[in-house]
Amino acid sequence: MSGAGRQRPQRGQRPSLEFRPVADLMVDPAYQRSIDTGPSQALIKRIARDWDWGLCQPLNVARRTDGSLFVIDGQHRLSAAVLRGDIYDLPCVILSVGDQRDEAAAFVALNQQRLKLSRIEIFKAALAAGNVEAHDINGALEAAGLSVAATTNVDSWKPMQVVNIAGLEKCVRTHGIKVLRMACLAGAVAFHGQVLRYFGTIFPGIVAAVVKHGVGAPELITLVLGGCDQAEWRDEINRVKADNPNINMHAAAEMAIVRAVDEAREAQS
């Protein structure tokens, strides 16, 4: 075909086009992005207030093997319809899927074609799709009593929730799952019960301390971390960065926390 290049074979089954009752449509939070944010709630209210059927594109919906229907794309439209209360069904492009993993993979593929997902959203979808690395990271978090927050909006975070997906992934890829588990546990114990506002800033330093001293002194690392609150560690890392303008914040965190653990270990000798 002229201009199209070499085309790959078609994949998947042809979907069906149907109007389905709003009450039959569900959303799986295991991989769907959270709509509990200010911008999402504002969008839902705006769609509901100014509902226009000409702008209501069909929702992408997965039909699971038990017949249940889960929205892959379109939960803002669904929520707006529910909010109005006078819309009883919605147009849907319905795909038959094998299981939740296929559904989550379809969610990622669909959204990556047109919208960049956040690291949190990609991580949660990868976890639902059975990605091994995501499973390992989630296991390390759960073992430490941590979990991934629903959004990057700090005002919505609950105690012991983290958002530093990139840092967690870098740790496991560079140092392995054992170091990740130790670093997560050290941070969780040191800042137990707190909203982890600066955990992403501090975490590279925790990892560096675990790599250097973790096997021989895990309790010391936790003790040193707990000796300052998160804001104090953030300030110390910023001071190190100011004193060393050629390094990034990641390296500054490593320098600040490793130095503190080194000093504490020397004091014990």
TrEMBL record:
<protein>
    <submittedName>
        <fullName>ParB/RepB/Spo0J family partition protein</fullName>
    </submittedName>
</protein>
<feature type="domain" description="ParB-like N-terminal">
    <location>
        <begin position="18"/>
        <end position="112"/>
    </location>
</feature>
<dbReference type="InterPro" id="IPR003115">
    <property type="entry name" value="ParB_N"/>
</dbReference>
<dbReference type="InterPro" id="IPR036086">
    <property type="entry name" value="ParB/Sulfiredoxin_sf"/>
</dbReference>
